[in-house]
Specification:
The protein is of the alpha+beta class and 181 residues long. The chain has helices at 31-38, 55-64, 69-72, 118-132, 148-156; strands at residues 12-16, 19-25, 75-81, 86-97, 102-109, 138-144, 160-169, 172-180. The protein has a domain at 12-136: Aminopeptidase (3-Layer(aba) Sandwich), CATH 3.40.630. Helix 1 (31-38) packs across helix 2 (55-64).
Length: 181
């Protein structure tokens, strides 16, 4: 059983084709990665971003976030993989509903590390953390129907399509995927 966020004493870890995978808290040193990922315009239709973010914007975010899901109402964790613990993406818990013990999930994997099973492993680790540590009962994701790679990653981590919403976003249909913990 996973016991918490990654620390040297207690890693949230798993494995993928790329090797070992773990989730860890954001650090100031993640600024270059966040800058690259948040400004990946190809990913914007699948998320809430619709304009570039500056390094100052992201530096402010890193300084403001506590890493406490209850204080911030959201949580971003860095996906690290390989023996050198390279940041390869991130997972977000958003729209956190403490009363009903559920949250939305988003995942981003750097283009250089896609198709290695990192998203699946990160989602499995996130599910374990949210179930055993946060005591959530449900996670969901809203994924564009056209984004088959993202749908496949969520489905491989035991999320199931429970609804499709036509014309939910300008870019087309959104599918809601859910997993009960």
């Amino acid at each position: 059983m996973m016991t918490g966020l990654s620390t040297p004493e207690s890693p949230v870890a798993g494995s993928s084709v790329a090797g070992s995978v773990r989730l860890r808290k954001l650090e100031q040193a993640d600024l270059p990665w966040l800058y690259k990922w948040e400004n990946d315009a190809e990913a914007w239709p699948d998320g809430a971003t619709h304009n570039p973010l500056s390094k100052d914007d992201l530096r402010d975010y890193l300084q403001r976030t506590t890493g406490d899901i209850y204080l911030d109402g959201q949580l971003r964790l860095i996906i690290c993989s390989g023996q050198n613990d390279t940041p390869t993406g991130c997972v977000d818990l958003y729209d956190v509903d403490i009363r009903n013990r559920k949250a939305g999930v988003a995942v981003y994997v750097d283009p250089a590390y896609r198709n290695l099973g990192l998203a699946r492993e990160a989602l499995k680790l996130l599910k374990s953390y949210t179930s055993h540590i946060l005591h959530f009962r449900m996670l969901y994701a809203m994924v564009r129907k056209e984004n088959s790679a993202s749908q496949k990653a969520f489905q491989s981590a035991d999320f199931h399509v429970v609804a499709c919403l036509p014309e939910w976003v300008l870019e087309g249909e959104i599918c809601v995927l859910q997993t009960l913990l």
